[in-house]
Amino acid sequence: MVVQKKVIVITDGDEYARKTLDYLAGEIGGTSLSYLSDNPTHVSPSEVKHAIYNTSKDPVYVLIDDAGIPGVGAGEKILLELVDDPKIEIIGVIAVAAHTKNTEWSRFTFAIDHYGELIPYGVDKQGVRLPEIGRINGDTVYSLDQLDLPIIIAIGDIGKMQGKDDIKKGSPITRKAIEIILERGGLT
Fold it and tell me: Do strands 135-137 and 105-107 pair parallel, antiparallel, or not at all (unpaired)?
């Protein structure tokens, strides 16, 4: 029987996301692979998989980012390869809102707004509720609808959201998303 690594995918790879995930991995537990992230992602799927295999603590936080590239960009190529890997179990995705020119979107399980409330509506980059139910615009969300993922949580821009997800405040919105995924994935 193959022991699967438990992975949480985050669709953001900028400096704020990296610092936030490093901080939260230290607080909540797990391993942040933020050192492999960038905006856009430059590492190969095989590099990410090798890093996941060599971690000692689950969950493994994988940050991917297409930086507005339409269609399946570098970050989504990684996601697609992780989904197909029998040694990896994606227990959830944090889908980060973005202002994209090509308006890619995805459905999600629920969103967390900038107040930390669970809502059925989409959110924008600031974590502000949008009028549309169940859809988020982002630049690394194109493939999410096509995959069988257990939970997708939509949030605003990690570490930002008008200061409401600031690392100095403990990044409460991103933390809540991770804790819900861990609870649903049986890791709490």
Answer: antiparallel
Phi first, then psi: what are they for 41, rounded to 5°?
A: -65, 135
User: Residue range 94-104: average pLDDT?
Assistant: 77
Cα–Cα distance, 87 to 49 (Å, whole number): 9
Query: pTM (2 decimals)?
Result: 0.95
